[in-house]
Design brief:
Radius of gyration: 18 Å
Keywords: Signal
Strand content: 25-35%
CATH class: Alpha Beta
Distance between the termini: 27 Å
Helix content: 10-25%
CATH architecture: 2-Layer Sandwich
Shape: globular
Number of strands: 15
Amino acid sequence: MITLRSIRLHTRCTLFAAILAVPTLAFSESPNSPDAKLPLAILNSPVTNVNGQSQPWPEVVMKDGMDAEQQRAVIASLGRRFDDFTKPGVNSPIDIPRSIKKTVDGGVFRVYSYFFTVHATLDILNDENLLTKLFADNKQGNGEGADLGVVGDDKYSYAHEPELLKRISLTMVLRSNDSKSEASVYAGSIVVANDPENKHQSSWAPLDSPDDKQPYLGMGIFTKATPLVELPNVLFFEAHMVFYEPKGWFRGKNLLGAKLPIMIQDQVRSLRREVGK
């Protein structure tokens, strides 16, 4: 099995540079199917916050083994014409369905799925130089990040965003998996409480009260890249992100949720530009 680096897309916010991912392994059923062989270990459990409230992972839409007609039906379900959705170019369509689920503690789980195509083959994702260029942004901006090593199939890293929307300081420890087959590629990351050596812990604190640190859990993403049967040099990407936003972050205001679609579009365009070089 060929392993890949977790793919982290460009963003000015270290938080999302670390968590927003793109591709890795193949399987023919949805991650939520009880009989499916899960492509990534992080998908074995729902995304859960520190209070034990959980949100299931969204399901894969472009499953392995689909024929050309079935793949066209998936794209049509997004409200897109096949030719428009698969056209080349940095600004070709990007779909970003999203939903919100309130939690009993006043916070919310935000669920984002985004779909787009890139004119490339699965082989290009094995290009370490490309991956380094795309996802070396862990230390971009005012934040910081670092790799924390590998345990079995799990890669650990952390990201620190000192001034998320000028409201909170956030540190995340990430557990990441990735894998590849001839049919597709998957990658994913989820926030965990701490790294295996407990040198870093996931936590947040208000900027006006930096010593009031609270543990943080509830964020994860996985991405799948699948070649199209009719256009084998075009990859269908789908990324599914779940994150818990405590009420204490923005007092219920939709500040981060309003910015995410713009950030996602910028990240996808950056990916397309890099692949096109």
